[in-house]
Design brief:
five-stranded antiparallel sheet, alpha+beta, Alpha-Beta Plaits, 191 residues, Ribosomal Protein S5, domain 2
């Protein structure tokens, strides 16, 4: 499954209306907090339309634009590009000229399409957030097994404690160290 490597923002102007598209990578279904943050960042915007795809969940919102003229076109662009774990929010500042239904569909589609020209894609695979606790004599072996993984947290006390994002293959190599699975997630696939 592919997603964006980092968040992107792009702005276009169509008939005096400003359309700001934010493409945000989703790590979990934190949609409401993302929308609240955007509304605080752009409190005077007229509309906050969006579409998102997270695993098999797809949703869109026209945010008081005429029905199916904003959210659905946004979602359609994401589906056509086969992107997952993403939300596209288009913030509109109304410029005084009505665009009509066809004009709105074209404007929201163009806003997302233009923003997507600036992204780099990465491939995601199913993975796990795990914790490992081990003694100092195993540190070198563990670090070798965790080459090219994302170690989120390290703590050194009587034993060493790691929180790590790993794929299934690495998890199986760590079996003898009794890793604890904290949650299933998606991680960047290494080439």
């Amino acid at each position: 499954m592919k997603t964006i490597s980092k968040n992107i923002e792009n702005e276009i102007i169509i008939k005096n209306s400003k359309f700001i598209c934010k493409l945000i990578r989703l790590n979990n279904s934190n949609i409401n907090s993302i929308l609240e943050e955007i509304k605080q960042e752009h409190p005077k915007a007229t509309h906050y339309c969006y579409g998102y795809i997270y695993d098999n969940i797809k949703h869109s919102s026209d945010d008081n634009e005429p029905s199916n003229t904003a959210g659905l076109p946004i979602l359609n662009v994401l589906e056509k590009e086969n992107i997952n774990h993403i939300i596209a929010v288009v913030i509109r500042y109304f410029g005084g000229i009505k665009l009509g239904a066809g004009g709105l569909i074209r404007a929201y589609t163009k806003s997302v399409t233009e923003a997507l020209k600036n992204v780099e894609y990465i491939t995601l695979e199913k993975g796990y957030k795990i914790s490992l606790e081990f003694d100092y004599s195993n540190e070198k072996n563990i670090n070798y097994l965790l080459t090219n993984t994302n170690i989120i947290n390290k703590q050194y006390d009587k034993n060493i404690y790691y929180e790590v994002l790993v794929n299934k293959e690495v998890l199986e190599k760590l079996e003898k160290y009794n890793p604890k699975i904290l949650e299933e997630t998606y991680i960047e696939k290494l080439n």
